[in-house]
Hints:
With 300 residues, this protein is mainly α. Among the domains are: 81-165, no CATH class; 170-263, Non-ribosomal Peptide Synthetase Peptidyl Carrier Protein, Chain A. Helices cover 79% and strands 0% of the residues.
Amino acid sequence: MSGNQRGRGGGRTRRNAQEEPEGFAEAFAGDPNANMWAHMMHQHQQFQAQQAQQHQEMMMMFQQQMNNQQNQNMGGNAAFREFCRMNPPEFVGEYVPAKAREWIQRMGDILDSMECSEADNVNFATRFFRGNACHWWEGNKAYMVSSQIEMNWTNFKRLFISHYIPESYQFQMERELTELKQGNMTVTDYTMRFNELIRYVAEGNDAPTEAWKMKKYRFGLRADIAHDVSMQQSANLGDLIQKSYHAEAGLSDIRKERGEAYNRKKDSGKFNSQLKPKGSPSKGKQHHAGTFISILLCYE
């Protein structure tokens, strides 16, 4: 009994499983909208196929982008390694204008010697921020992005200088440049100080011309050197500086020769004075001897 029941139950299960697709298809047999449902099913299948194709295309594009990004990263890493080999300085965010000026100038010189994109220039330089400088850059980087300011070295430098080198300090440096004189400094020391101060003026709103810088440099030279270089034509500031070096060396040689000549003349005068007979004492002896003879003759 039980076996027959199990057999009949099992038979129904298998029969239902086999007839289920047919029953599913026959469910719409008497439906007047059967064509519509079939059309919808067909559209659904086409939509799934399109989605699968789009997904495949997106994956291919993503893979291609990843490959391009890896290639760019490899090139960027090579450029960054080259940048690191130049020993760029770190900046910790100290509010010392002189140190900030030295850092931004050194970084600019290094980046000028490389062929990098404007964005890489900023990225490489800021990789050497430490401490408070990192915090400052996080805020300003977000500001540049939100304000749609182009990420280039010029804009970055402007933000950096306005924060770490206040206008009052720049005005002080400009005034020192106006009053700068060579005095007892060598041409080398004077030129170094001049170049350091001229940077603050060159980056202002009214950048000086080459003629103005040459005039200011010549005006600060010592009178003898300034007179010498004024007698010559200088093409630019660098040419004027070279002529100042030559004038200083020439004047130094002249002073050295004059000093040696004076010492020779002085030494020669002492030598002659030592060889010259002492006239006064000998005349005195002769005078006393003559007096003594006269006395003897009188007694005779």
